[in-house]
Write a structure and sequence with these properties.
single chain; alpha+beta; two-stranded antiparallel sheet; 4 helices
């Protein structure tokens, strides 16, 4: 197998710094049930880059997904598997639930 060249030839520490610089947004807003939710291009470069960077993007950013109350009910069985904290906000109240 040929040695990696270009970006993948960089030391892992440098690649991780690049992933952090590009992928850490702290707050990512997403439309509810988007047909094609935006996936950063860096996660689509190749399998190795995706494997190295996906944890930085999904574990270290906060995602804001705006849903109607009825939509949240359909997700209840999945929430503990994919989120650490759920915040519900209406015009009158804000509720935070640690999962």
């Amino acid at each position: 197998m040929a040695a990696p060249s270009g970006f993948l030839a960089l030391p892992a520490e440098i690649r991780n710094r690049i992933y952090e610089y590009v992928l850490l947004q702290h707050h990512v807003s997403m439309a509810p049930f988007a047909i094609n939710p935006h996936t950063p291009g860096l996660l689509r470069v190749n399998k190795q880059a995706r494997a190295e960077a996906i944890g930085i993007y999904y574990l270290r950013n906060n995602f804001k997904i705006w849903l109607l109350r009825e939509q949240v009910g359909r997700l209840n069985h999945r929430l503990p598997k994919v989120v650490r904290r759920v915040m519900y906000q209406s015009r009158w109240e804000l509720v935070v639930v640690e999962v």
